[in-house]
Every structure is written in C-alpha cells, then in structure tokens.
C-alpha cells in the first residue's frame, strides 16, 4: 500500500498567528545549535519577525502552508519572494513533525512548493540550511540545490 498524498494547504490568518511563535522558537533554537549566542539568536528572530510579520501579520506574498499527509497535519512550509522583483523565491522554513519523518514527506512538500513558486512567477528557489542539519542538506542536494555561498565559523 502506498503512502497517502502530500499536499500543501494555505494557512489562514488565525493559523499563521498560532504558527508564528512556534516556528520562530524553532528558528531561534536552530541558530543557537548552529553557533549563535542566545542574544544573537534572539536578535535574528526579532529581525525575521519584523521583516516578514510586522505586528504579527505576514507580509504580502509570503505563503505559509500546512503540509498534510493524507488527512493528517505533518508539518509546515513557508515560501516567498525576496525583494520586489518576485522572481527569486526562498524556502524560508520547512518542518516535518517527528512522526512523519523518513517517509518522503519533506521531499514531496518541497516539490509541491516548487510548483507553487513557479506558478507565482519564480525563476529560482533559494534556501539556507544550517551545516549541522546533514539530513536536510542531503535532501536538498537530491532535489537539485547547489551551494550558493558557504559561511564558516570557528569557536574561540
């Protein structure tokens, strides 16, 4: 028997409001795991929220989806354009909840996200991934993503 279909369901404003503190807490923790101090991570979180969610409301053009596996909520995908031109899009956040991992959900969500971005005029899709997230890096490589820049750090 095959896995149920993965689909992207746009989030309502109420869903975005509930999602935002959860997603930003994940982002802040990921930055700490990647080497930021707690203060740096908190500042990056605030900057992201101010840029994309001023007053708690998403900026026009930023698309947030619930990732569904059949009729179950399996995670989220946030994509949107960078800048005014609208052809360069970013995967800002992809999360697959623990019980749904290692089942191809992230791969299928990314492919669906590419289709959404293309339908909105995107000609390229970018993303950032923290170096410790080797599983995500491997997935993105198999989907055709190539390094565009590499930031390196050394603890002193």
- What count of structural domains? 1
Order of helices and strands: EHHEEEHEH
**What spatial order of strands do you see in the largest sheet?**
1-2-3-4-5
How much helical structure, as a percent, in the residues?
25-40%
List the total number of helices. Answer: 4
- Radius of gyration computed on alpha carbons: 16 Å
Per CATH, the superfamily is: Gcn5-related N-acetyltransferase (GNAT)
In the predicted model, the low-confidence regions spanning at least 5 consecutive residues are none
Which CATH class?
Alpha Beta
Overall structural class, as computed from helix and strand content, comes to alpha+beta
- CATH fold call: Aminopeptidase
Average pLDDT: 94
CATH architecture: 3-Layer(aba) Sandwich
- What's the story with the biggest beta sheet? 5 strands, mixed
Q: Could you tell me how far the N terminus lies from the C terminus, measured between alpha carbons in angstroms?
A: 52 Å
Please, could you describe this protein's structure?
With 156 residues, the chain is an alpha+beta fold. It has a single domain, classed as Gcn5-related N-acetyltransferase (GNAT) (Aminopeptidase, 3-Layer(aba) Sandwich). The protein is 38% helix and 22% strand. The protein is built from four helices and five strands. The protein has a five-stranded mixed β-sheet, with helices on one face. Helix 1 (13-33) packs antiparallel against helix 2 (38-52). It is globular.
